[in-house]
TrEMBL record:
<feature type="region of interest" description="Disordered">
    <location>
        <begin position="292"/>
        <end position="359"/>
    </location>
</feature>
<dbReference type="GO" id="GO:0098552">
    <property type="term" value="C:side of membrane"/>
</dbReference>
<dbReference type="InterPro" id="IPR036013">
    <property type="entry name" value="Band_7/SPFH_dom_sf"/>
</dbReference>
<keyword id="KW-0645">Protease</keyword>
<keyword id="KW-1133">Transmembrane helix</keyword>
<dbReference type="GO" id="GO:0008233">
    <property type="term" value="F:peptidase activity"/>
</dbReference>
<dbReference type="Pfam" id="PF01145">
    <property type="entry name" value="Band_7"/>
</dbReference>
<dbReference type="InterPro" id="IPR050710">
    <property type="entry name" value="Band7/mec-2_domain"/>
</dbReference>
<keyword id="KW-0378">Hydrolase</keyword>
<dbReference type="InterPro" id="IPR001107">
    <property type="entry name" value="Band_7"/>
</dbReference>
<feature type="compositionally biased region" description="Basic and acidic residues">
    <location>
        <begin position="321"/>
        <end position="330"/>
    </location>
</feature>
<comment type="similarity">
    <text>Belongs to the band 7/mec-2 family.</text>
</comment>
<dbReference type="InterPro" id="IPR018080">
    <property type="entry name" value="Band_7/stomatin-like_CS"/>
</dbReference>
<feature type="compositionally biased region" description="Low complexity">
    <location>
        <begin position="331"/>
        <end position="346"/>
    </location>
</feature>
<dbReference type="GO" id="GO:0005886">
    <property type="term" value="C:plasma membrane"/>
</dbReference>
<keyword id="KW-0472">Membrane</keyword>
<dbReference type="InterPro" id="IPR001972">
    <property type="entry name" value="Stomatin_HflK_fam"/>
</dbReference>
Length: 359
């Protein structure tokens, strides 16, 4: 192969490589949510959307690639002076989206820097008219006003500001300490008020409970006393009626007292005995047997029983005879009591205690 042929082959290869590279550069694939700006001979030609596109080799070129998604841009802390001459640091977050790729590239050199500087100046203007308390509690007002100013200013740049959020407002350290002390004092005051209210309500409820309890106890005590008095009255009436129906005299009552004397003498604590007059009257017969005195006639003595009774008119000089006479009189008293009980239709048991025997 001659040198001329070799040179021709080299030139042909170079041309092929140039043609292939030109064709490769003329084919452009645009991804979703992207926009390509094409310039022809240094002048804006068109905007390429997502898809496959062909460019004119050596005439068209891609000027810029613009992202059409919503973007989050945190601004650095801005030192702002409030109306009460306090310096606060404000951090903000901006949510924006490019709506016109051509304007975002050709209307401003760098829209990120423009948004940042515009945010700083707008924050100074807004917060400068507010005091610290209003700035801390008026975040919604600051967000809305700042978004309106930014959206209006960035509209010609092909940018839409969707949201503006104040991330943090940091007052000076001394102001923070004062605010914490104020908040602590306010919480202590509220805690003291709540505690006092709780104690007050508790005392009221306790007083109401004690009042209701005392009322119920008094009503129960009154009812109990009324029922007890009614029961005692009925018992007294029944005993009184039983005594009068049985026609009991002093001898029967003396016999009942004789039955109760052993019960009284059972315990050692009984040092004093109360002897009723009916019992002493019944014992006068025994005394009359030893001393020769005649037994006095009771006021309520039954005339029929007096006829059947043998008076003690003889003086008993022998103690044994007097004792026999006393035993006979006791047996006579018991017989009279039994006959009196049978005559009234009631039975008499000498072994029954006083509390169970009628009269």
């Amino acid at each position: 192969m001659t040198p001329v042929q070799i040179a021709g082959l080299v030139v042909l290869g170079i041309v092929a490589i140039f043609v292939i590279s030109a064709i490769a550069r003329s084919i452009v694939v645009v991804r979703q949510t992207k926009a390509y700006l094409v310039e022809r001979l240094g002048r804006y030609s068109r905007t390429l959307d997502a898809g496959l596109h062909l460019l004119v080799p050596f005439l068209d070129r891609v000027r810029a690639q613009v992202d059409l998604k919503e973007q989050v841009y945190p601004t650095p802390p801005q030192s702002v002076i409030t109306s009460d001459n306090l310096v606060v640091d404000i951090d903000s977050v901006i949510y924006l989206q490019v709506t016109d790729a051509r304007a975002a590239v050709y209307e401003i050199a760098n829209y990120w820097i423009g948004v940042e500087q515009l945010t700083a100046t707008t924050l100074r203007n807004i917060v400068g008219t507010m005091d610290l308390e209003q700035a801390l509690t008026g975040r919604d007002h600051i967000n809305g006003h700042l978004r309106g100013v930014l959206d209006e200013a960035t509209g010609k740049w092909g940018i839409r500001v969707n949201r503006v959020e104040i991330k943090a407002i940091e007052p000076p350290v001394s102001i923070k300490d004062s605010m914490e002390k104020q908040m602590r004092a306010e919480r202590d005051r509220r805690a003291a008020i709540l505690t006092a209210e709780g104690v007050k309500q508790s005392a009221i409820l306790m007083a109401e409970g004690e009042k209701q309890s005392a009322i119920l106890m008094a009503e129960g005590d009154a009812q109990s006393k009324i029922l007890r008095a009614e029961g005692e009255a009925r018992a007294i009436l029944q005993v009184f009626d039983a005594i009068h129906e049985g026609d009991a005299d002093s001898k029967l009552l003396a016999y009942q007292y004789l039955q109760m004397l052993p019960e009284i003498a059972k315990t050692d604590s009984n040092k004093i005995w109360f002897v009723p007059t009916e019992f002493t009257g019944a014992l006068k017969a025994v005394a009359a047997g030893f001393g020769g005195a005649e037994e006095p006639e009771p006021l309520n003595r039954d005339p029929e029983r007096a006829k059947r009774r043998t008076p003690l008119t003889n003086v008993l000089t022998d103690p044994r005879v007097a004792l026999e006479e006393a035993r006979r009189m006791a047996e006579s008293v018991s017989a009279d009591a039994e006959s009196a009980g049978s005559a009234s239709g009631a039975t008499f048991d000498p072994n029954v205690s006083k509390g169970q025997q009628p009269g």
